[in-house]
Design brief:
By secondary structure, the protein is of the alpha+beta class. 67% of the residues lie in helices and 8% in strands.
Amino acid sequence: MTDSEPMPIDWSAPIGSVRPEPPGRRAVRERLRLTVFSLGYALAMAPALVLGILTVLAIALGPITVGFLIAAAAVPATQRLTAAHRWASGTLLGVRIEAVRYADTSGVPAAARPLRWLRDRARWRDLGFCWFSATGGYLLSVLPGGLLTGPLTWLVLLLLDPSPLWTVLLALLGVPAVVLWWLLTPALVAARARADRAILGRSRVDRLEERVEQVVATRSETLDHTAAEMRRIERDLHDGAQARIAAVGMSVGLAEKLIGSDPETAAQLLREARENTVDALEDLRTVVRGILPPVLADGGLAGAVAALAVSLPVPVSVALEVPRLPAPVESAAYFAVAECLANTAKHARASRCFVAGTHDGHRLRISVGDDGRGGAQAAGSGLSGVARRLAAFDGTLEVTSPPGGPTVIAMEVPCRPTKSG
């Protein structure tokens, strides 16, 4: 499509170059689009100013009931206003502006939420944005529209009343205003969008702080999970192999006493001791497989998952094209897949399922899905444990499971292959 052909305005397009360019249909449409965005910013000054004033009043009147009531209305409204600005500014900049995480108020009584908001840095940032939008942000946003509407108004008045006054205004002020509108509009709108991003978006410090909080939480969950695993192993050893080995010792000791007086009974006790020894070895193998399956150490993640799929009552197709990965990552991914497949076998009522995975050199991606009844929740006890296991490696888990199915569980773990892989 050439510049001379009609073209609809793409309202979701990011700002192009802010440098001056020769007039043309495309350039005119772009400036008109940015002017409309700028007018929207300017009009948003009114609710921002109202919400800013209400928030200040809520803080001042906090000790009495009316302050709580004002805050209960103003703070959520401010959050919605800032979310709209993040969307608009992100659209113009061609990026997604992520909000600083708000303090969690779920489970907090309504009367106690204003106290939580007072300690929330993200809410204070929203308040600061309201005052910026009503002052400096308004000046940035009103200029493009003002530079264009002034000359247009004088032109209309000149056509209605051809007087020297309108002619002089249009000639001396209108033409320079249109030229400034042409030259400055992209830069002004871009400056406003960048200012919004700087105030409302997450900075590098914010991301680092959130990452530290996530690491602390993940470490705590990992330690809890490790402690639970140790207790499970200790319980399995105590109830299985240890009990059988103790029985072997008792049988051998009793047989030793009876070997002279009752050889037949002693032989029977030794046979029982041998059987208990075999059972104890099998218990030990089971415990070891629960810690790290030998097939995982020998054949890697792909081989271990393929071996796991054979033992399931549901047909499983496995398509894993992954190199050898660090042992802790392989173990975490293996047990995550095992938990997902176990959930499928127990709850999904599926006729078939699949495991697919790739590695792009930087990130392991695995999908586990089935054609069952759906309705799986990431907050479920099994899947929440999978998420915690992956979170220890900065991994993520996403569940897509509408009622009626199908279910797809997508897992990602950042990692590099081992040198041997």
